């Protein structure tokens, strides 16, 4: 039997934020979600989360249907937090029961490391440690002459000699559940901080002749905690770089794996190339031979094969068919559908629009709430005027139409098959198929007119 306790009650004062610490994000998700996900992957009998600061806010931001939630009203230390959770721990079948204690601000510890820790518990106690070149702030592991762990000393309580020790306590503990039940009540707050330290379990185990085992993670960064925004940024870069390396092993070509961010899920085909500074959010799928230029943002997008998305383009909530060219500096959003062989050029925005096969909007246009047919040419500066200040209306442009530069299409409106709209037209009525429609005033010169001057 396995019980898991996740400690997530702290306010995170060093974050200097109104947001609870465990809700600060890593790759676009609250750090607490990573810990919960790892816990679930261990298939435990129970998961209990200890909340404190802004508990209702934290609870509202996580999927907690299968979790036990307990409240630590006063933050009196890690052992006190575990005491609050013990009422939720099942003590049935105590001979075979283990409790794993995790931290909501240590998001990167791997499931394989946690399994190794549980395997080493052996009905007693095992702790996760790490060798750190900069151990400031961490509890130090004190061993005897034969290498057995005898104590953990908090950094604030450590002597000068103990501060020089590089092996640190990562805080994560696996312990026989019955022993936890017995020993947690034996921890007192007779220290400078007047807190109940969970690390005192080590000393109690030693006093009861129980050997405390330890496990090192495969990577030291697995046990990095997030206490301030510098650490948050550092762990973000570590996490993104590890993702990038895994993607490259699966065949993705990255111009620079250290300038690459996935804040969701990325699926890709063969021979996909991604340039520097790109961000992928939500669910993004890229087909074979897709090329993404520098500094693009894709969010919840499906892109078919042989698509080129040029620099600084933003594409969200969109389906892009094959052989399309987008950008540079294009924006496509809000349930748009870009059909094959079309071209969306520089400084073109498309919103809530179906854009037809082999159609073109090469530059400087806004196409919103529209149905664009096949082989349509939309000139520079064309605007679909889809909003009257209260409601939005649709523009329909049928196949083979030509829309001259600088035209304004006042929706709701329909432009027929193979219609031509003269440049500079302000169109307020439907335009018939196969005809040239022009709506603009006759050019005239005002004699003796003078430009106003400043007073």
Automatic annotation (TrEMBL):
Binds 1 Mg(2+) ion per subunit. Catalyzes the last two sequential reactions in the de novo biosynthetic pathway for UDP-N-acetylglucosamine (UDP-GlcNAc). The C-terminal domain catalyzes the transfer of acetyl group from acetyl coenzyme A to glucosamine-1-phosphate (GlcN-1-P) to produce N-acetylglucosamine-1-phosphate (GlcNAc-1-P), which is converted into UDP-GlcNAc by the transfer of uridine 5-monophosphate (from uridine 5-triphosphate), a reaction catalyzed by the N-terminal domain. The keyword Zinc does not apply. Residues 230-250 are annotated as: Linker. Residues 1-229 are annotated as: Pyrophosphorylase. The lineage of its organism: Bacteria, Pseudomonadati, Pseudomonadota, Betaproteobacteria, Candidatus Kinetoplastidibacterium. The active site is at 363 (proton acceptor). Its EC number is 2.7.7.23, 2.3.1.157. Its cofactor is Mg(2+). This is Bifunctional protein GlmU. In the N-terminal section; belongs to the N-acetylglucosamine-1-phosphate uridyltransferase family. In the C-terminal section; belongs to the transferase hexapeptide repeat family. Keywords: Acyltransferase, Cell shape, Cell wall biogenesis/degradation, Cytoplasm, Magnesium, Metal-binding, Multifunctional enzyme, Nucleotidyltransferase, Peptidoglycan synthesis, Repeat, Transferase. The keyword Metal-binding applies. GO terms for biological process: cell morphogenesis; cell wall organization; lipid A biosynthetic process; peptidoglycan biosynthetic process; regulation of cell shape; UDP-N-acetylglucosamine biosynthetic process.
């Amino acid at each position: 039997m396995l019980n898991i306790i996740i400690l997530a009650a702290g306010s995170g004062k060093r974050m200097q934020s109104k947001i609870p610490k465990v809700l600060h994000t890593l790759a676009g998700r609250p750090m607490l979600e990573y810990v919960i996900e790892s816990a679930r992957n261990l298939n435990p009998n129970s998961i209990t989360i200890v909340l404190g600061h802004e508990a209702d806010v934290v609870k509202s931001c996580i999927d907690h249907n299968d979790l036990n939630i307990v409240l630590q009203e006063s933050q009196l230390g890690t052992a006190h937090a575990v005491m609050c959770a013990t009422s939720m721990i099942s003590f049935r079948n105590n001979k075979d029961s283990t409790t794993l204690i995790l931290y909501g601000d240590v998001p990167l510890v791997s499931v394989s490391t946690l399994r190794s820790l549980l395997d080493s518990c052996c009905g007693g106690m095992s702790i996760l440690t790490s060798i750190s070149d900069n151990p400031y702030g961490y509890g130090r592991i004190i061993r005897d002459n034969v290498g057995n762990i005898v104590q953990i000393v908090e950094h604030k309580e450590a002597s000068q000699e103990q501060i020089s020790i590089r092996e640190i306590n990562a805080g994560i503990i696996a312990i026989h559940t019955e022993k936890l039940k017995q020993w947690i009540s034996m921890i007192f707050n007779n220290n400078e901080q007047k807190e109940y330290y969970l690390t005192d379990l080590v000393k109690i185990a030693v006093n009861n002749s129980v050997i405390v085992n330890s496990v090192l993670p495969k990577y030291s960064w697995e046990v990095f905690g997030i206490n301030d925004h510098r650490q948050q940024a550092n762990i973000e870069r570590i996490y993104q770089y590890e993702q990038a390396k895994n993607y490259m092993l699966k065949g993705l070509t990255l111009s620079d794996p250290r300038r690459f961010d996935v804040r969701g899920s990325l699926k890709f085909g063969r021979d996909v190339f991604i340039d520097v500074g790109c961000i992928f959010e939500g669910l993004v799928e890229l087909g074979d031979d897709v090329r993404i230029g520098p500094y693009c943002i894709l969010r919840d997008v499906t892109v078919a094969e042989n698509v080129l998305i040029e620099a600084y383009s933003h594409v969200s909530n969109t389906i892009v068919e094959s052989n399309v060219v987008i950008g540079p500096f294009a924006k496509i959003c809000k349930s748009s559908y870009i059909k094959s062989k079309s071209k969306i050029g520089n400084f073109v925005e498309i919103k809530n629009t179906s854009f037809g096969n082999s159609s073109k909007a090469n530059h400087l246009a806004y196409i919103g709430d529209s149905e664009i047919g096949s082989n349509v040419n939309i000139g520079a500066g064309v605007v679909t005027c889809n909003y009257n200040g209260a409601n939005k209306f649709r523009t329909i442009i049928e196949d083979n139409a030509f829309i001259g530069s600088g035209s304004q299409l006042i929706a709701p409106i329909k432009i027929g098959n193979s219609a031509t709209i003269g440049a500079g037209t302000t169109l307020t009525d439907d335009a018939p198929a196969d005809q040239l429609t022009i709506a603009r005033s006759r050019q005239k010169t005002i004699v003796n007119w003078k430009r106003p001057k400043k007073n």
